[in-house]
Amino acid sequence: MKRTVYLTILFAFGVIIISSCGSKVAPVSERIAKVWKAASVKENAVEVYKTGGGSANTKPGYVSYSLDLSAPPAVKIKDVDGGTYTGTYSVTATTLSIKGLTPQPTGTGGNLDFQITSLSDEGTNLVLTGTIPYPKTGNTTNTYTLVTN
Q1: Cα 72–chain centre separation
Q2: Structural domain contains residue 77
């Protein structure tokens, strides 16, 4: 009888331990490996584009902005001016570094670096902030709120 009670308690304890373990969040490198489009863009903290913003968007060209990170380490960017750039990227928990872009976006030397301000656990929302001013937008510091396609 004691053995049955001990086994039951041990089994119940095991079930509690296993059920209390939450689902694991995929690493940043997996959650970021998607095609992203602009939901909102701020230049020097001023919102210049928002999905559905209509005539309030001072830079409507962001409607076609996309950041394709779906085939690591390759990256493809369709920028606000409609230009398309390809290169490679690397990612850490807090940074996204894009290197060797061709053709080189004006004034960048072919490199862009971003701080990952936010990334949802599901990998459906991403906020990136440029670490240096972006020459193509008038040397503004840009924050991109991106969503998956």
Answers
A1: 13
A2: yes
Which ranges of the chain does DSSP label H, i.e. alpha helix? Answer: 2-20, 28-31
- Would 9 be classed as within a structural domain? no
> Is 43 among the domain residues?
yes
Q: Which domain holds residue 55?
A: 26-148
Whole-model pTM: value is 0.83
Total number of domains constituting the chain: 1
* Rounded-to-integer distance, Cα 41 and Cα 142, Å: 7
29, 39, 53, 84, 136 from 57: Cα distances, Å: 32, 12, 6, 22, 18
* Domain annotation covers residue 143: yes
Identity at 82, one-letter amino acid code? G
**For position 35, which CATH number holds?**
2.40.128.280
Tens digit of each residue's pLDDT, the chain (149 residues): 666 655 566 565 555 555 556 678 899 999 999 999 999 999 999 999 999 999 999 999 999 999 999 999 999 999 998 999 999 999 999 999 999 999 999 899 999 999 999 999 999 999 999 999 999 899 999 999 999 96
- Rounded CA-CA distance 18/20 in Å is 5
